[in-house]
Amino acid sequence: MNSSLKFQLTEDSIAILTMNRPEVRNAIDEDMIDGFERAVQKINSEDNIKVVILTGAGSAFCAGGNVKDMQNKNSIFGGTPAQLRNNYQRHIQRIPLALHDLKVPAIAAVNGPAYGAGCDISLMCDMRIAAEEATFAESFIKLGLIPGDGGAWFLPRAIGRARAAEMSFTGDAIDAATAAKWGLVNRTVPANQLMPEALALARRIARNPATAIRMSKQLLKESERQSLPSLLEMSAAMQALAHYTRDHSEAVEAFLQKRPPAFTGE
Known about the structure:
The chain is α/β, with parallel strands linked by helices. It is about 45% helix and about 15% strand. It has helices spanning about 30-45, 65-70, 80-90, 95-100, 115-125, 150-160, 160-170, 175-180, 195-205, 210-220, 230-245, 245-255, and strands at about 5-10, 15-20, 50-55, 105-110, 115, 125-130, 135, 175, 185-190. The radius of gyration is 19 Å and the shape is globular. The relative contact order is 0.11.
């Protein structure tokens, strides 16, 4: 995989993605954007992968965009207003679209500051575990900007409109304990327990049948935009398919025989 985004696959069917630019606090660049797209394509195409963990190398999770590039009008931050609009669509916005297409659950293991687009990338995951030292900021307004990466869509869905407004309008950082209290993260842990805790959660997920995991994620995504009757119709159709998987039969047999199931992904 891409050098700015390391890819590792464990024996437990868990993909670990690491944003790998610690010298710039994992600020996003074109290589990282390409890496997200390639990683999602690989994960979606391999049925044996059941869950993803996303984290950052070094002391930060992700600092978002490169402020020096903003100052110098380099990279995606150069050009006319029309060109800038196109740059955002052709570059940073590819990350939320890629992660939105991810077919398996994603856990953000937030090891340090997650600011601006870094905060939003954590929100693009289904679950978040934070080190006690982690901090979160929807900090765009501090630079006279707005969330160009979809943060205004993700943040209120995670913590509600009022708290999302507070973070967006002030740009102030919140600590991990506040993030947990507000529901932005599932829980906080000491820094040395972050990856063990994320892996433990990922393994609890990966013990379940692959097809049911992917269907469950799809239903949760659709629930954000579908009416109840529409979601019930989709649920009925997916359930009918699930009943005919070998893993469902194995799960029932294992339950009745009081033994651990042996799933094959079929």
